[in-house]
Design goal:
single chain; 821 residues; 22-stranded antiparallel beta barrel; globular
């Protein structure tokens, strides 16, 4: 509590000194008032934007209409101005006014707005082709019908520049690095990322924001940045919604669907949606250890059922106060049936059958209150977000074969997590060209895992023993930030600083159920850090813009990385966490150039990262079985990475558009690996050599998306992807490439219904293949259901007129800059 009090004093001291005094306000300021009406219905329109601009087009001030359609804008300086009435779905009305002697109180009377059919269509209908927009602190990919028809968010991410998805685990990476935070509508989720991406329908996604160098306003977690998934929001008056469904198949069926409903009147916006993902996924592969003369074949059938419910309400109390609450409820039930068979060189074999069943629930409760002050753009917002995750998993391991020397065993895992985030944000436009942002945040996180097994580990005598382990992990973070931005002619500058104090406490309690011997392993880590950031943008001309940014980041070890319990367990390899793992810090520099072309745009950027206390994988040989490997993580010395990205959107003809991107990353990776110098059957401790491994990895990806529009209702798509061969600590990966084809047809009045068909990995070339020399020579190949066809259908229902939503999403504030790509 003392820390929160100190942060509050710091924040409001900054605000007090930064906020200008109003004692010397101009006594000759004027006022403009009026009422905005629907031209056809002759009814008042609330929440309409009224913008006051100078004769040169610069925004001076503004406001919104009340429930009865009236407005009154005060403190307008003398001179010629333009009053612009702007409302989504209506044609903009502009009126020239002069504030001066004898005309300080201007009454415009009733202003009638006519519906803009073209504009309404533009809002209602999703764009045909996805677009990329470079902004000061992020890259925004607006999802069109071409990408929205891909199925799930996990499949959609494959087509996003700079993003890659591990086809086996579903883990996501940004610029080749998996240390990335994934948010939905600016908020973290307790749902594991791989599970989350597979249960969000791609048709529900409005845009993907890639924040590779976040400002001080954002949490500094995630070395490679933040991926924010922005879902469609409905702000239409009356009742309306949409329904969508998608079915795909290669060896096993996969199904997902979504229902969205919304009702809005002048004071309330009620909404709810439901989505599901029901699928079976088949994977298979092999591991060939050449020197040990062993071949392991693996088949995996993954079965998942997830259901997500969201209900919320926005309450527009009055012009100054907005209250919003919502809840997300996620139900997941799934399991995995895996079989692995190992054939040894002496013609003996061992089989392991792994049967896993699990379920989990995730609950999110969100409260948001926003207060707008009299000054346009000045506001304060309080948001409280509370998440609960509860999951259980039961795994049975059955062994057989002529080479089998271990008993069957089971594993029971019970996981409980709680996450609370409290944000207080303040925004003050100090003048037309400067703005102050400041805020406080508290993030409280706790994870408790109970793990029981009747024979996973061995004692010193080689006997398998039953054990019970409890692992408790707590991390509390208290932070304050301030951002100051200023525009000087063609230059825009933003400087920020975030201060954080962190408290980490972990305790592992392991009980030998044979002897009842209890082993306690505590670990604490408290630290205070500062995270500066800087952004500079130059709008050199209408066609050319430049951006430079710097930020300091942190990658805190995840629960899985510090959890000493097994992440996975097979006869040849196991993965454990490291409780003593420390965070790694990154200084990130980035610059981008955007060029607007006659038929499109192109952007190019380079980045450089300096990493301290890098987290990387360590490979050990299991002393109880020299055929087995043990993987864990540890901290290493400083390292660096750099890369370049090129993206473009080009329309050669009216019926053909192209989205393409190329990215290249280079990083020096360091690790420790043990190497066995003798056959496993005769090896001793003396035959294990410890090596420090350093790998200079260069990876590159190329994507190109073509959209062919035959008519306003029918279009075809073709997507090609190529990932070059690259080297990392464990494997030298071979190149991977594939081609996807699709078609889309819209029908019914206003193209309310859409049917799409897709055929992925047409030539069946997508697979993971690699070879390695550490700690054994081995070849690896894994395949999955990539050669799939899918059918999709979506339909929009309801009607009404659009109204601007007044509530600000704290993580959707975007600074203008750059251009469309």
């Amino acid at each position: 509590m003392k820390k929160i009090t100190q942060l509050c004093i710091f924040l409001f001291t900054v605000i007090a000194f930064a906020t200008p005094s109003n004692l010397d306000s101009n006594l000759r300021d004027g006022t403009v008032s009026g009422r905005v009406m629907d031209a056809q219905l002759k009814e008042p329109l609330p929440y309409v934007n009224v913008v006051i601009k100078s004769a040169s087009g610069e925004t001076i001030t503004g406001g919104i209409t009340k429930d009865n359609g009236t407005f009154e804008i005060e403190k307008i300086p003398e001179g010629k101005i333009v009053v612009s009435i702007q409302y989504i779905g209506y044609k903009t009305v502009s009126k020239d006014v002069t504030i001066g002697k004898g005309n300080y109180k201007v009454k415009l009377g009733d202003i009638f707005l006519e519906e803009d059919v073209a504009g309404l269509d533009e809002v209602t209908v999703i764009a045909e082709v996805s677009t990329i927009q470079q902004k000061v602190d992020r890259k925004v990919i607006t999802i069109g019908k071409d990408l929205a028809a891909t199925g799930t968010a996990s499949e959609l991410m494959v087509g996003i520049p700079s993003v890659s998805v591990d086809s086996q685990t579903g883990d996501i990476a940004l610029r080749g690095n998996q240390n990335v935070r994934v948010m939905v509508d600016g908020k973290l989720s307790n749902i594991p990322t791989a599970q989350l991406l597979k249960q969000i329908p791609s048709s529900a996604i409005k845009s993907i924001e890639l924040i590779t160098n976040p400002s001080a306003k954002y949490d500094p977690d995630g070395m490679s940045g933040i991926i924010n998934i922005v879902l469609h929001k409905n702000t239409m008056v009356g009742f309306n919604g949409s329904v969508s469904t998608n079915f795909s198949y290669e060896r096993r069926p996969k199904f997902n669907s979504a229902l969205n409903m919304n009702y809005r009147n002048g004071k309330f916006n009620l909404y709810g949606n439901y989505s599901n993902n029901i699928s079976k996924n088949f994977n298979f592969g092999f591991i060939d250890r050449i020197d040990q003369n062993t071949l392991q074949n693996v088949t995996v059938l993954d079965n998942r059922k997830s259901h997500v419910f969201k209900v919320g309400v926005d309450f527009y109390i009055n012009d100054k106060n907005t209250l919003s609450v919502f809840t997300n409820q996620n139900l997941f039930d799934g399991g995995t049936d895996a079989e692995t068979g190992i054939l040894f060189g002496n013609n003996t074999f061992q089989n392991q059958l792994i049967t896993n069943d699990g379920d989990n629930t995730s609950q999110q409760y969100n409260f948001d209150y926003k207060l707008d002050f009299d000054k346009e753009g000045q506001n304060i917002e309080l948001e409280v977000d509370y998440n609960i995750f509860d999951g259980d998993a039961n795994t049975n391991n059955l062994f057989s074969g002529s080479a089998n020397n271990r008993p069957n065993f089971f594993e029971l895992t019970d996981t409980e997590r709680e996450r609370t985030s409290i944000n207080l944000d303040y925004v003050d436009p100090l003048s037309e060209t400067t703005k102050l942002e400041a805020g406080l945040q508290a993030r409280l996180f706790n994870s408790a895992i109970e793990y029981e097994s009747d024979g996973r580990s061995q004692n010193a005598n080689g006997d398998y023993i039953p054990s019970l382990t409890n692992f408790d992990y707590s991390r509390n973070i208290y932070s304050a930030y301030v951002n100051y931005s200023k525009k000087i002619n063609k230059w825009s500058i933003q400087l920020g600083l975030r201060a954080e104090t962190v408290n980490v406490e972990t305790l592992a309690e392991e009980t030998d159920l044979q002897t009842n011997l209890v082993t306690l392993t505590p670990f604490d880590n408290d630290y205070f850090e500062l995270y500066p950031s800087a952004f500079v943008t130059l709008q050199a001309s209408e066609k050319n813009s430049f951006q430079f940014s710097y930020s300091r980041r942190i990658d805190r070890p995840g629960v899985g990385q510090v959890n000493p319990l097994p992440e996975f367990n097979t006869p040849l390899i196991s993965k454990f966490g490291n409780q003593d793992l420390l965070p790694q810090f990154t200084n990130s520099f980035e610059t981008n150039y955007t060029r607007r072309l006659k038929k499109g745009t192109i952007t190019a950027g380079v980045f450089y990262r300096r990493i301290k206390d890098e987290i990387s994988t360590i490979v050990f040989v299991d002393r109880a079985d020299f055929n087995r490997l043990i993987l864990t993580d540890d901290n290493f010395q400083n390292t660096s990475s750099y890369g370049l990205e090129i993206s473009s959107n080009y329309r050669p003809t009216k019926w053909w558009s192209i989205n393409g991107s190329f990215d290249l990353y280079a990083q020096t990776q360091k690790s420790i690996s043990e190497r066995l110098t003798a056959p496993a059957e005769t090896a001793t401790e003396a035959d294990i050599v410890l090596e420090t491994v350093e790998v200079d990895n260069v990876a590159y990806n190329f994507r190109i998306f073509n959209n062919f529009r035959v008519s306003p209702k029918l279009s075809f798509t073709a997507f090609a992807f190529y990932r070059g061969a690259n080297e990392n600590i464990q494997f030298d990966q071979d190149a991977m490439h594939f081609v996807n084809l699709g078609m889309r047809y819209s029908f019914l009045e206003g193209n309310r219904a859409t049917f799409n068909f897709g055929y992925n990995d047409v030539f069946n070339t997508m697979k993971f293949s690699a070879d390695s020399g550490r700690p054994f020579r081995q070849n690896v190949e894994f395949n999955w259901e990539s050669n799939t066809w899918n059918l999709g259908f979506s339909y929009r229902f309801g009607g009404g007129k659009y109204r601007a939503k007044s509530r600000k999403n704290r993580d959707n504030d975007e600074k203008s800059g750059g251009g469309f790509l």
